[in-house]
Design a protein that fits this description.
The chain is an all-alpha fold. It contains twelve helices and no strands. The longest helix has 28 residues. The chain starts with a helix and ends in a 7-residue tail after the last helix. It is an enzyme of class 3 (hydrolase).
Amino acid sequence: MDASTQSTELTRSFTAAAWDSIAPIMAEIEALPLLRRLSDGTLPPEVFRHYILQDAIYLKHYARCLAIVAAKAPDNAQVLRFLGSAQKAIVVEQGLHAGFLSQFGITSEEVTAAEPSPACFAYTNFLLATAYHRSYAVALSAILPCFWIYWHVGEAIKNRPAIPGNAFQAWINTYGDPQFAAGAREVIALTDIAARSASPAERAEMSDVFVRASQYEWMFWDSAWRLETWPV
């Protein structure tokens, strides 16, 4: 590695490098039929019902992960900033869920009775285990892809021509909303702050969990498209 390359690597943010590392995963996410057909309004209602029920289960566990990560923050300033950004995302998503549950005729009893799909179960358990057992920096890196990828996808779809009468327009508006974007940017910034004081080994682990969580994001959407259930 020459001096200029080494200098670039030393000054480049952790999150910029992490995002670049998942370019192949993002290409697969952007090509998902669920997202394409959600964008153009042709997603079958039964697929969206499956997705939104799984997302409700996911959010319940994700909120607990965020609370654990906040508790591990090294100072009060980061605790408060993290809780604020996490609250923005959760409030936005809960509002979205409430609207869609009503729109698609999903009852509170159905939400309570819903079982996590294999992909949802694996993803939420990965996040909870990482939040409980790993450092603040590593846990931040695990929860970051959910913020960042949803923001990226929402922005990309929002910038396409709107389809009149798209039943899923509220989903597009939510993840392209400035409030959600602000929460995502704050978590990105906090992850970079944590990475600057992390050891090389810890930064490597941060990179690993960032990639794994990004893979789970693809699996979650793909499983919803396939109406995934437990095979036995």
